[in-house]
Write a structure and sequence with these properties.
Alpha-Beta Plaits, about 10% strand, five-stranded antiparallel sheet, globular
Length: about 200
């Protein structure tokens, strides 16, 4: 009963709010909207302004510059094992963070709702989408859904596609993290092995 109630809250309540983007985007890309919701929960906890920097790829100068910038502007951030997650107070501040990272050639950072990586910058430029645009929930979700679908088209399995979205297939527990969230959204007769991608290949 709790699972059904949670699913109802996610996919029905908020027909006039941001919740509706899961259904519309999932439908347009042929991806179960609950999977998109689960990935967003794992990636950003549904925070469209989060920017995460891959700390392991920074040299000392880059790391020092990053922390100096965050401290001087009093921007909330948390350092984890591999990333520094930056929580801007508003979209203006989030854009300033992205500009700083981009202009100073930081090698790897993730943006917004689905944590789209800057490695896609040149492809997005061809689509007239800037890194700043990824702070928009709908744009971010659409871009991420396209990336996720391409992962599935290449690997043809839920597990490998979801792990590939996170950057690597082997030795990655990302699928497990997403599945834990997804399991709470599935109906009692469903399981996480169900086909989550339903567009014809």
């Amino acid at each position: 009963m709790k699972r059904i109630l949670l699913l109802w809250i996610v996919l029905v309540v908020g027909a006039h709010a941001a919740t509706n983007i899961w259904m519309s985007t999932g439908k347009s890309h042929g991806i179960d909207p609950r999977l998109l919701y689960a990935i967003s929960k794992v990636e950003s906890n549904h925070n469209p302004l989060v920017v995460s920097v891959n700390y392991k790829k920074l040299n000392k100068v880059q790391a020092d510059m990053l922390y100096l910038m965050l401290q001087s502007r009093d921007i909330q951030h948390i350092t984890y094992t591999k990333v520094v997650s930056i929580y801007s107070k508003d979209i203006i501040q989030a854009k300033q963070v992205i500009s700083f990272l981009d202009q100073n050639d930081y090698p790897s950072f993730d943006i917004g709702l689905m944590q789209v990586n800057n490695v896609h910058k040149e492809v997005l430029k061809g689509l007239k989408i800037s890194l700043h645009d990824l702070l928009n929930e709908q744009i971010n979700l659409n871009v991420a859904s396209g990336i996720l679908w391409n992962c599935y088209k290449k690997h043809r399995s839920n597990k490998e596609a979801i792990n590939a979205y996170n950057g690597r297939i082997v030795g990655n527990d990302y699928y497990t993290k997403v599945s834990e969230v997804l399991h709470k959204l599935l109906l009692p007769h469903e399981n996480s092995s169900k086909n989550l991608f339903y567009r014809i290949l």
